[in-house]
Specification:
With about 120 residues, the chain is an all-alpha fold. It has a single domain (about 5-115), classed as Orthogonal Bundle (Non-ribosomal Peptide Synthetase Peptidyl Carrier Protein, Chain A), CATH 1.10.1200.10. Helix content is about 55%, strand content about 0%. α1 (about 5-15) runs antiparallel to α2 (about 20-30) and α3 packs antiparallel against α4.
Length: about 120
């Protein structure tokens, strides 16, 4: 389990350049386990790495928004998101796991399952 002190340091080290609310949500998630905060962090990290992010925050888009077709995610965007999330949350994902994730909701759920120690099912 990540402590609040570790979360604050990770926010400083790894979320530099991100909007401040992403770091705040990350710390709040670690402190309280509120999965709505996790959603904001994951989608904020993804939005930061998109080559052409939409004008509105991803958290305001429907969960059915498709990563590739609607947002233009490519493999580099997904790898950047994966590596940062692994580092922030102390989880490890297989290289091919995110290739099966197609929507915003699936992405958040995939990370939620790993963070809680559940086993993601095949999509």
């Amino acid at each position: 389990m990540i402590t609040t002190a570790e979360a604050k340091q990770r926010a400083v080290d790894q979320l530099a350049g991100f909007p401040a609310d992403i770091a705040d949500c990350y710390i709040a998630f670690v402190e309280g386990g509120d999965f709505s905060r996790l959603r904001q962090v994951i989608l904020g990290v993804l939005q930061f790495h998109l080559a052409k992010p939409p004008e509105q925050p991803l958290a305001g888009l429907p969960g059915s928004t498709r990563l590739v077709e609607d947002l233009g995610c490519d493999s580099l965007t997904m790898v950047d998101t994966l590596f940062l999330a692994e580092s922030l949350f102390d989880i490890r994902l297989g290289d091919d796991e995110l290739a099966r994730v197609t929507t915003l909701d699936e992405l958040v759920e995939h990370f939620r399952l790993h963070i809680t120690g559940s086993t993601p099912t095949s999509t």
